Amino acid sequence: TKDEVILRRVLVLQKIDLFVHLAPEDFIWLAQRVEEVAYEPGEVICRAGDFGDTMYGIIEGSIRVHRGSEEYAVLQEGAFFGEMAIIDSGPRSADCTAKEAAVLLQLHRDQVLTFCFQNIDVLRSMMRVIADRLRGMV
Ligand code: CMP
Q1: What is the reported pLDDT for 18?
Q2: Does the model's ipTM exceed the 0.90 cut?
Q3: What's the rounded Cα separation, in Å, for the pair 113 and 98?
Q4: What is the number of domains present in the chain?
Q5: Hey, is 49 helix, strand or coil?
Q6: Nearest to 53, CA basis, from 133, 99, 112
Q7: Residue owning the nearest CA to atom 19 of ligand 1
């Protein structure tokens, strides 16, 4: 049923580190809106230089963050990516490719920003992750 789908998705959303501080009603709000998308190994999710208004949470599998053959990171279940373009509407900073078969949750910019502004802990964890990633790039 529809309720079961929402409930399953809430459980999935709770795997994403960024959302540890969300209230139960926030999980339900998100669960009714996010989209789940599956990727094959090697499939490209976004490319450096592209514009996009989607952030991704990794439900299953792992994602390579790279520029061509230069690898910056491999992100695992529970991690998120695509947050930089959400914040400044600028071009994607890296290519993101499925390393293994992956299931991702897609979040639209408006959904992410709503939570950042409502919940200081979400904003704080996102800023912490961005600072850490930038440090890795210099
Ligand atoms: P964005 O620039 O929107 O799209 C590419 C994404 O790759 C970026 O957001 C981050 O989520 C991620 N990313 C970029 N650089 C790094 C890094 N050094 N470590 C981990 N993830 C990164």
Answers
A1: 86
A2: yes
A3: 25
A4: 1
A5: coil
A6: 112
A7: 133
